[in-house]
């Protein structure tokens, strides 16, 4: 369910604004379930970063990498 929800949100964000080329988020690097959910929704883990809230894993999804059917 998580993956379908993330895919639907990504599809909406990309369809609402054609100038958006990348969506990114930063789950905890210790939250393997969240990272896996994002990866299944076509996000790619980029790097571990430091945010004001602590360490995070930067993950992103590019418009060009997003399939047309978000609910596949």
Give the CATH topology. Answer: Aminopeptidase
What is the number of helices? 2
Q: Tell me the CATH architecture.
A: 3-Layer(aba) Sandwich
End-to-end separation: 12 Å
CATH superfamily: Gcn5-related N-acetyltransferase (GNAT)
Low-confidence stretches: none
Could you tell me the mean pLDDT? Answer: 90
Structural class of the secondary structure composition? alpha+beta
Supply the number of structural domains: 1
Q: Return the CATH class.
A: Alpha Beta
Overall geometric form: globular
Helix content: 25-40%
Short synopsis of the structure:
It is built from two helices and three strands; from the N terminus they run αβαββ. By secondary structure, the protein is α+β, with helices and mostly antiparallel strands. It has one domain: Aminopeptidase (3-Layer(aba) Sandwich), CATH 3.40.630.
What features would you highlight for this structure?
72 residues; alpha+beta; Aminopeptidase; 3-stranded antiparallel β-sheet; 2 helices; 3 strands; globular
């Amino acid at each position: 369910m998580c993956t379908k929800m993330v895919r639907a949100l990504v599809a909406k964000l990309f369809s609402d604004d054609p100038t958006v080329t990348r969506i990114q988020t930063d789950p905890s690097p210790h939250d393997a379930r969240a990272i896996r959910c994002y990866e299944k929704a076509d996000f790619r883990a980029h790097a571990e970063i430091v945010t004001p809230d602590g360490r995070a894993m930067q993950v992103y999804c590019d418009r060009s990498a997003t399939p047309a059917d978000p609910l596949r």
